Amino acid sequence: MACSPLTSACLRCVVLMALLAGATTCGPPSVWYGVSPDHRTTYEVSETDGRSCVRLGSLQQGCFDGISLHLIAFSRDSRHFAYPVQEGGAWFVIRDGQAGPSVDGVGVLQFSPDGERLAYAALRNGSWHVVVDDKFGDPFDSLLEGSFQFDPTGRRLAFVAQRDGRAMAVIDARIESSHDGISAIQFSRGGGSVGYIARDEDRAHLIVDGSVRGDHDAISEFRFSPSGRDVAYLFLDGGAWWVQDRDTVRGPFPAVRTLSYANDGSGLTFVIRDGDRERVARGDDYGPWFGSVDAPVFDTRGERWGYIGQDSTHSVIFLNGAEASREEWATDLTLSDDGSRYAYVAQRGALTYVVHDQGERGFDVVVPGTLMFTEYQGRWACLAGNLDREELFVVVEGISEARPFEWLEVGQMITGGGGTVGPDPEESLRAWVSAEVDVLMSDER
Questions:
Q1: Max alpha carbon distance in the chain (Å)?
Q2: 38: helix, strand or coil
Q3: Residues near 102 by Cβ (< 8 Å), separated by ≥ 6?
Q4: Digits of tens for pLDDT over the chain (445 positions)?
Q5: Neighbours of 323 (CB within 10 A)
Q6: What does the alpha-carbon distance between residue 226 and residue 296 come to, in Å, rounded to a whole number?
Q7: Closest C-alpha among 388, 393, 420, 389 to residue 405
Q8: Residues 6+ positions from 91 with CB-CB distance below 8 Å
Q9: Nearest by Cα to 84 from 55, 62, 109
Q10: What SS3 state is found at 69?
């Protein structure tokens, strides 16, 4: 692949493809391994006399006729561990060493945010059920993969199921409504509200807490405000796109995407696309046009925000709507929680730099999407490395020691092994780097 100059998407492709190549050139491992989200506990799945055996840390979990490797799951805090096994023709979910009810098949496993509850899809007597804490829900023809959503408290669960050709929103174990199609089901930040996009014939609706909002040709996305009291969404009517923000409608636009609120609830932000150019809109303020723009980022207080605009010859970094710097190419703008610091990744010739408000540091490569600010005195960290030598390591600002990574382990996680990667490899890598930073800083102390 040739990229000149490098674009954000191109660099991600180059780096991730290199990792994948490293993961697949040596064939499948004889022992499948992974790590917990906090990276302090490893697990292994090995073959012994035709049986699949699981070891968690130093403890042998047991041996079974089969194990569904890609469904192995940990809770976020790494205190709970679950995986589906086959034994004697039946399937079971083993959670923290205890077997759940016998079923004919098992789908995705999902822990609640606090790790105290486990939900999974189970096939029994020809129907699919959602099993929560070993209790079976209603039978359905199918369950929409990826739709399981716990609210932030872990008390509420929503998902999309199908019965007799109709899509059904199931919230708190009750069928709320049925439609031709349902997508994007999500809870508000506090869990008090739940919404989703529903489609019936050629009309789209936003449904929030059972109330229908809007009647449009299409709805592409919606967002709850941080308080959960307001909701904004993007809709298509009459061949143009519009933004519904509380009681205000903005538009028309040729295309619009990436809807987001600042974390204090102010300044709804979105990206407008017109042909081969894009710009950022924040409220009634519109930024300059670029060939493309990265998704805006915000600090946790809502006091600072920014984005990067990309053109064929340069990148421009914006903070609070004002130009802060220019680079040949830049991506991954990141803000500290309090907004006092910023950092981004810049490509200059053969080297890649982490540029920040207090200086810069060069590397052979910085893995895209891994730059972040940590809770340790607000220092930045990232996953960097050397592609030629196939070396990867976690770097923390101001710390001379780097924590090495196994190249093949990264590739295995990206391809779905290890039980810690979701559908977004970059999101998974950020969580992984964050855990490695915790280990590294613990060693420093």
A1: 67
A2: coil
A3: 90, 91, 92
A4: 333 334 444 444 445 445 444 444 444 456 888 888 888 899 999 998 999 999 999 999 999 999 998 899 999 999 999 999 999 999 999 999 999 999 999 999 999 999 999 999 999 999 999 999 999 999 999 999 889 999 999 999 999 999 999 999 999 999 999 999 999 999 999 999 999 999 999 999 999 999 999 999 999 999 999 999 999 999 999 999 999 998 899 999 999 999 999 988 877 999 999 999 999 999 889 999 999 999 999 999 888 999 999 999 999 999 999 999 999 999 999 999 999 999 999 999 999 999 999 999 999 999 889 999 999 999 999 999 887 877 889 999 999 888 887 655 555 554 444 434 344 567 777 888 899 899 888 876 5
A5: 12
A6: 16
A7: 393
A8: 84, 85, 102, 103, 104, 105, 106, 122
A9: 109
A10: helix
Q: Which pair of tokens denotes residue 320? A: 């609070």
Cβ atoms of 306 and 335 closer than 8 Å: yes
For tokens 């489609």, the residue is 199
Q: What are phi and psi of 428, to 5 degrees?
A: -65, -40
Q: Any bridge partners for residue 237, and if so which?
A: 240
How far is the C-alpha of 185 from the C-alpha of 423, rounded, in Å?
16
Length of the chain: 445
| Residue labelled with tokens 């840390």 | 57
Amino acid at 228: G
Q: Which residue has the tokens 């439609």?
A: 179
